[in-house]
Design a protein that fits this description.
Length: 62
């Protein structure tokens, strides 16, 4: 029982952080099911800009 009392603040902080992380994961999963993207959609600055959103349609194929 002494261990629990001595570490109560740490336990509470860990529980709060776990709830926050769980809510973030839940929102990301819900947004993915709805087809929303988690990126800022500024593909010109993104190194993976050509790989998402169906590719870059402005590039001419040769």
């Amino acid at each position: 029982m002494d261990w629990l009392v001595n570490n109560l603040a740490t336990i509470i902080i860990c529980l709060i952080l776990a709830v926050i992380v769980g809510l973030i994961i839940y929102k990301m999963a819900r947004d993915k099911k709805r087809g929303k993207s988690s990126c800022g959609c500024n593909c010109s600055c993104c190194p993976m800009g050509g790989a998402c959103h169906g590719g870059n349609k402005d590039i001419k194929k040769t």
